[in-house]
Amino acid sequence: MGKEIERKFLINDSSYKELAESSIRIRQGYLNRDPDRTVRVRIIGDKACITIKGRNHGAVRDEWEFEIDPAKAVEMLPLCEGGIIDKTRYYVGASDGLCWEVDEFHGRLAPLVVAEIELPSPETEFTRPRFVGKEVTDNPAYFNSSLSAQA
After folding, report:
1. Parallel, antiparallel or unpaired: strands 2-11 and 60-68
2. Dist CA 37 CA 43 (whole Å)
3. Confidence class of residue 58 from pLDDT cuts 50, 70 and 90?
4. Would you call the peptide bond into 78 cis, given omega within 30 degrees of 0 as the criterion?
5. Residue 94 has what pLDDT?
């Protein structure tokens, strides 16, 4: 079983765009949005995957991810609950060796922008870049599975 340890924040400004090392477009939907067992289909660039996640316990949750044929992912998107999330992800390296992933949402979710940082352990300390604002890790309204209902 894999563990995802992730903290999520709102954004103060758009300086992440200047700091980004790269970016990529992502489309994703949820075959199941139950907080105990979310099942996501994601197309990221020319790759695709299915991800199964357990309930959040603070910044920690169980996670399994499986690569799938991108054509099959496209076929599955219409089966998803709620809408399809469309976003651009910016990758911003940090001086502490970690990477910030900043998601700029499109469509009905615009102008929402959220920054996430994956950590090796819940106790890992990290430096917040100037663009990182209020923490929303424990706020279900900012879970992508919740956002998909508005997409």
Report:
1. antiparallel
2. 20
3. confident
4. no
5. 83
Give catalytic residues, as residue numbers: 30
Average pLDDT over residues 69-79: 97
Average of per-residue pLDDT across 16-25: 97
Question: Is the pLDDT score of 1 beyond 70?
Answer: no
Residue by residue, what is the 3-state secondary structure of the chain?
CEEEEEEEEEECCCCHHHHCCEEEEEEEEEEECCCCEEEEEEEECCEEEEEEEECCECCEEEEEEEEECHHHHHHHHHHCEEEEEEEEEEEEECCCCCEEEEEEECHHHCCCEEEEEECCCCCCCCCCCCCEEEECCCCHHHCHHHHCCCC
Q: What type of residue sits at position 16?
A: Y
pLDDT tens, residue by residue, 30-40 = 999 999 999 99
C-alpha count within 13 angstroms, C-beta hemisphere, residue 141: 7
